[in-house]
Amino acid sequence: MSGTSLVTARERALAVLGGEPDDATLRRYLHGIAGVDAVGLEQRAAGLGTRSIKTSSKKWALDRIISLVDLTTLEGADTPGKVRSLVAKAMNPDPADATTPRVAAVCVYGDMVPYAVDALGSVHGDPDDGLISVAAVATAFPSGRSSLEIKLADTAEAVANGADEIDMVIDRGAFLAGRYGLVFDQIAAVKEACRRPDGTSASLKVILETGELVTYDNVRRASWLSILAGGDFIKTSTGKVQPAATLPVTLLMLEVVRDWHLMTGQRIGVKPAGGIRASKDAIKYLVTVAETVGEEWLQPHLFRFGASSLLNDVLLQRQKMASGHYSGADYVTID
Amino acid sequence: MSFLEYAPAPESRAILSLRDSYGLFIDGEFVDGRGTPFQSISPASEEKIATIANANAADVDDAVAAARRAHDRVWSRMSGRDRGKYLFRIARLIQERARELAVAESLDNGKPIKESRDVDVPLVAAWFFYYAGWADKLDYAGLGASPKALGVAAQVIPWNFPLLMLAWKIAPALAAGNTVVLKPAETTPLTALIFAEIVQQADLPPGVVNIITGAGDTGAALVGHGDVDKVAFTGSTAVGRAIAKQVAGTHKKVTLELGGKAANIVFDDAPIDQAIEGIVNGIFFNQGHVCCAGSRLLVQESIHDEVVERLKTRLSTLRLGDPLDKNTDIGAINSREQLDRIRELSDAGVAEGADRWSAPCEIPENGFWYAPTIFTNVQTSNRIAREEIFGPVLSVLTFRTPQEAIAKANNTPYGLSAGIWTDKGSRILAVADQLRAGVVWANTFNRFDPSSPFGGYKESGYGREGGRHGLGAYLAPASVTRAGRPAPRAVEAASAASAAAADEKPARRTRRTTKPAKKGAAK
Amino acid sequence: MSRLAVPKTYKLFIGGAFPRSESGRTYEVRSADGAFLANAAKASRKDARDAVVAARGAVAGWAGATAYNRGQVLYRIAELLEGRRAQFVAEIEEAEGLTRAQAGAQVDEAIDRWVWYAGWADKFAQVAGNANPVAGPYFNISVPEPTGVVAIVAPQDSSLVGFVSAIAPALVAGNAVVVVASERFPLSAISLAEVLATSDVPKGVVNVLTGAPAEIAPWLASHADVSALDLVGAGDLDWVDLEIAAADTLKRVLRPEQGPDAAAPALDRIAAFTETKTVWHTKSLR
């Protein structure tokens, strides 16, 4: 999966904003977008959550969830061995069932990228082709508190090491202080750093860390800002801050993506990350995607789950559907 | 297969054990009716559900007599504390049998199971819980110390929320110390009859709750019965008007919850995605069979096209079909008669020049169905902008200024509800002040709660249900010395002179009891 | 030699003006002992129609005034009435054949009832309305609002206190009224209208018709722009027919009351001409 061109992104932003992306222009634009009524949003999300997905639909949904997972390890204790184990799980989630799809990507810290690339071998590639991408968190993840130079170096190194996707964090402090121009410029600069020598680009996921933005109006504005600045994906959370992904927040981001598509024709991806552990919850997200932006969004270059323990719950459900009886934790592998 | 064609997810009917036929519930027992029984059918399939007894005038007499006995001998003498405990029991029994009631409601009424399960039945239990707690606190109802129950309440309810309307009627009546005779709508008697079983399980004293089934003539006989002290009706304005005439000149206290043609006002700064949801919920909830439905969308002209486009997109995701499928958004129209009325008004809209758009739904072969429909290019004088359609049909009109929105919203003989969508708080409060409607939802729509009074202005009826106000509708002050009144000094009237004058006039007409009035089906 | 008195012409009170009946009709009003007192205007259906138009036009301003302001305006009526006490006592004494003390008691009670109702103007909403603790993230409040135009058949056996007791409660919440005075004792009602005209009551808020209630009331009961009907003094009319006529537009109806306690001051007389409005709004920190 590759990222879109930065030049196009910038031109598009200028056209949409009608001016340079400075604090004042962005403020005018972002604050001109209709507000969000939190109660109504949460009710809509709850309503989507009551969909009852059974039998053939559930079977399809479980397989699709697996193929949309960014299987993630983001620990200080990560080692090459841990990453190899993760990659093995990503390639062959259920050793007992060869029909199990592969996940979309493995998501690791930048310094772990070479080990992931190495372990994937020939399976490394575009998840739309059934292969597995390597995603790297970058830009002083998870806090984002460092200089732009370091964030860019962090990004460039991960790309150079073979990362296909960069999960960057926005500067929430700058956003909350109203420095929208600064946030825009940083995203654009990171996007530039995603470029490879051959002219292609790693795909850029922009993490909003919605748990720190707190209000839905902020989430909506940050979503627009990230897309305007050239993000290929908008992602809810680092997983290090509570609350991480929630259904209302994801619904809201999907609504932005839908409106952006209506306005520009461009499709932006959405990645809820953190806190989605049960198949039942993941299915609610699939329903929300399908009923908000359409089910063509349910493919790896437009929707991802950032998760780790979710995969095993899906496998247990899958085994139950295949065998007709409930499975147990010892019948799926821990990594 | 497309994911959005969700596989069928039907709620099981196994939880429901229906009888072949149901009698009238009078004096604590099911008895045969003396009228000709009728069938209740499922509007989604037209299959027969059960045979229902039909109460004639003699049955109405029996039911009212049972209620009178229960009132005079038992219920009016019981402590408020014990009346409350009975109501708490009923609330719990409803929760215990919630799924069964939801399935029965969806089967008989045609509403989606997700609504009967998540809205109707939970609110029914909540209503009994709320009023249960009032039973021993009547001194705080706002009518002064020791207010009195009115006596026997005649209650006639509609088919759109069969069990919920029963709860709105029975819970406050019983809490206040009245006994009741309730007639459910002809097309939706099932949950009321299951409720009668719950009354038995609760061991409520016989005669406190009586449920009689039948059509409009049964309702008219009940409302006109001379030994009834209170009439509570929810349904059409036409029938409400007939009832108001029927009870004129009697001592009966009346509350009427009638029709509506609510304006849902969307300003250009509205939270747009939630407004779209609110519009959808406002008119397509319960197939639009809602007296407070937001059937007139008043949208600021500057965002008209955007709102209509978004609405159409959203409506295209609504799923019409089997009411018992857990993913159904739009169920069946309750009856062929109602479907005909929706079609007639909708065709009138086209004939008057409005543009009709219907969501692309597959319509099932059997049963009564109407696809969610939007009319644009509607003028305020069009029938579809003035008459209550009581179906999934939205009329879209525009306005330019807040004043114009208010004027258009109020330009109707109805006044039940209204909606306001805007981010501006001061505008919400000012517009809410000026709307002539009993319930105003701001940045939300179709919310109900037992603590929140509900009822109309103008021809949408009078009296309130819910909250302290709803309790007051079933109570009278302790004596003629009314609450809060200063002791007037003795004032001599021109007694001799007026007595002489009165002799020359025709005898004053006083309490008139029954007056037969032919009515259509109460709804 | 005694001075020759200047008698007053008693006219209708509509929209703040004192017109004669458009029909040109009058009827003789005689004292308790049969002496001629005045020719009162005998209002027609068209006068009733004009009065309803005037009342409807006055609702928005009166209902929209602050409750504090309405309370002061009503209190001012009491002040002015007190100042003209002697005139009303004499009028009632003559019309009803009461002693001066009895007539005085009636005027005093009328004044005190204005004071009582005036005080309610900015308290009624607090007593009749409330915040509702709904089970969800909503602000929810219920408030009483005026019903609109209230047509009243005033008590027929009293000159002033019955008339005042009928109109004051309807005015408290912000309704405008069209009131048919006592047929036999109309003069105090018109004199009170003169008080209202010189007090701060806006034009059209109170409209007074004199004449035959049996003739006028049916037009008011069936008028689609009348919101509520107070039949307190209609006990001797065919009031059931009036209630039936009122049902056509689902008017709120108060049934007749008899005797000296008719229209006695009560909170529920205020409530009878109000509508409870409940407003919901979402609330959230997000």
TrEMBL record, chain A:
It catalyses: 2-deoxy-D-ribose 5-phosphate = D-glyceraldehyde 3-phosphate + acetaldehyde. SUPFAM superfamilies: Aldolase. It comes from the Bacteria. It is an enzyme of class 4 (lyase). Pathway: Carbohydrate degradation; 2-deoxy-D-ribose 1-phosphate degradation; D-glyceraldehyde 3-phosphate and acetaldehyde from 2-deoxy-alpha-D-ribose 1-phosphate: step 2/2. Keywords: Lyase, Schiff base. One of its GO terms (biological process) is carbohydrate catabolic process. One of its GO terms (cellular component) is cytoplasm. Its EC number is 4.1.2.4. InterPro entries: Aldolase_TIM, DeoC, DeoC/FbaB/LacD_aldolase. GO terms for molecular function: deoxyribose-phosphate aldolase activity. Belongs to the DeoC/FbaB aldolase family. DeoC type 2 subfamily. This is Deoxyribose-phosphate aldolase. It comes from Agromyces bracchium. The gene is deoC.
TrEMBL record, chain C:
It comes from the Bacteria. The keyword Oxidoreductase applies. One of its GO terms (molecular function) is oxidoreductase activity. Keywords: Oxidoreductase. Gene3D superfamilies: Aldehyde Dehydrogenase, Chain A, domain 1. Residues 25-235 form the Aldehyde dehydrogenase domain. InterPro entries: Ald_DH/histidinol_DH, Ald_DH_N, Aldehyde_DH_dom. This is Aldehyde dehydrogenase family protein. The lineage of its organism: Bacteria, Bacillati, Actinomycetota, Actinomycetes, Micrococcales.
